[in-house]
Structure formats: structure tokens, C-alpha cells
Design a protein that fits this description.
The protein has 172 residues and is an all-alpha fold. The protein has one domain. It contains seven helices and no strands. Helix 4 packs parallel to helix 7. The longest helix has 30 residues. The chain is elongated, with a radius of gyration of 19 Å.
């Protein structure tokens, strides 16, 4: 099996791992949604789109949405699960198996990208009733999904690097 195929299988494992522990995945959606709703509700009154120059005709929801998306993408759990694998000994078993070393890391990053795409889509759909629009249409929406997924992969990659270097949760 190719390294990319191995990474795909490990990504599937990482996604199932996240589904089995919803307490680690649910805050990834709820916290950015909370800040989006609270900030739009309060700051939207302070900065009405009709009299606020920097909004350029958009609602405050359109201004706040990107930071909520980046917050959601930055909640990656790849490094947390990686450290659990390291501490539990499973990572050593994977390293002893005929699995590409790159696939061990890439699999979790692919899972983070897919989770980020889902979270981004949900947040954007929930922001539409708050007055947010996607002026660039469907292509802009796809680009937004791709850029947010890229941010999630880069951020999770840094966290995985730290996890691989320290081999510890840090607080234990």
C-alpha cells in the first residue's frame, strides 16, 4: 500500500477516534459559535453597518465570521490524540509496523483538514441568518473551506511537532 493510502487509513482512524470522544470535538464547534453569536449580538449594536465605515455595507457578522472560523480551525485535537498514542504505546507499535513515517503524521493532518471543512461549513451556515453573506458565491465558499482547512493543518502540524518532540501532554 502506498504512503498516501496508509495516511488515508490513519486519517479514517483519527476521525473515528474523534467521533468516539465527542467531548473533545463538540467544543470545537460550540466555542467559536458562542463567540460569533455573542460578539455579533453585542458589537453589532455598537457598530451598525449603516454608519460604520470599516464594515463597508456588510453586517458585523461578516466581519466577525473569519475570526470564528480560525478559532474553530485552531482547536485541533490531532496532537492530543497523538500524545495519547505515544503515552499508551500504540505509536511505538505503529512505528514498528510497515507503515510510512510520513503517513503517521499526515493521517492525523488529513483528519484535521476534514474536520475543519465540516466545522467551517456549519459555522458559515449558522452565520447566514445573522446577516453574513458570501459575496463571491459558491467558488468563494469552496475557497473559504480550503483556506480554513489549510490553517487547521498548519496549526495542528505545529502542535504535532511539539507532541512528537516532548512526547508528553505537558501538564502531567
Amino acid at each position: 500500500m502506498s504512503a498516501l493510502g496508509q495516511a488515508g487509513l490513519l486519517a479514517r482512524r483519527a476521525l473515528l477516534e474523534g467521533l468516539r470522544t465527542p467531548e473533545s470535538s463538540i467544543p470545537t464547534l460550540l466555542i467559536p459559535l458562542f463567540f460569533l453569536v455573542v460578539n455579533v449580538g453585542q458589537a453589532g449594536k455598537i457598530f451598525p453597518s449603516s454608519s460604520t465605515g470599516f464594515l463597508e455595507g456588510q453586517t458585523y457578522a461578516a466581519f466577525q465570521l473569519p475570526s470564528s472560523l480560525l478559532l474553530g480551525a485552531s482547536f485541533g485535537t490531532a496532537a492530543l490524540y497523538l500524545v495519547e498514542d505515544i503515552e499508551g504505546g500504540y505509536f511505538d507499535k505503529l512505528r514498528a509496523a510497515p507503515v510510512s513515517r510520513g503517513a503517521l503524521v499526515l493521517g492525523r493532518l488529513l483528519a484535521e483538514a476534514l474536520k475543519s471543512v465540516v466545522i467551517t461549513a456549519v459555522l458559515v451556515l449558522l452565520a447566514l441568518p445573522l446577516g453574513s453573506t458570501i459575496a463571491s458565491g459558491p467558488l468563494g465558499f469552496v475557497l473559504l473551506l480550503a483556506l480554513t482547512a489549510l490553517w487547521a493543518v498548519v496549526f495542528a502540524g505545529f502542535m504535532q511537532l511539539i507532541a512528537l518532540k516532548t512526547r508528553s501532554r505537558g501538564g502531567d
